Amino acid sequence: MSSLHTISKSWHQVSWLYELLAFASEGDAVLLLGDAVQCVDSPITLASFVAKCKVQGIAVYVLQSDMQVRGVGEPISGINRIDDTGFVDLVVEHQQQVAW
């Protein structure tokens, strides 16, 4: 059963990134939204996390509208931008949602 992991906490609290990896499995997806989008253009914060997700077969997404509201630049490589329709598609594709 695949899960959609939604993260909305501030990027200053990065411990949740690695806690998530312990619970996530292949076929899951991670969606950064809300305050969490502020870290998507920071390779120092996310590069290792995104690389580990890729190895585990976990896709990483960021909600484009939240990036625009917060004035965030382009996400680092490995993070896919999605719009609200893409968010709905992710919810439909995954059997459960886990909010961090």
TrEMBL record:
Entry coiled-coil feature ranges: none
Annotated GO biological process: tRNA wobble position uridine thiolation
GO CC, one annotated term: sulfurtransferase complex
InterPro entries xrefs: DsrEFH-like (IPR027396), Sulphur_relay_TusB/DsrH (IPR007215)
Any Pfam family hit: DsrH
Domain of life: Bacteria
SUPFAM superfamilies: DsrEFH-like (SSF75169)
Protein name: Sulfurtransferase complex subunit TusB
Organism expressing this protein natively: Arenicella chitinivorans
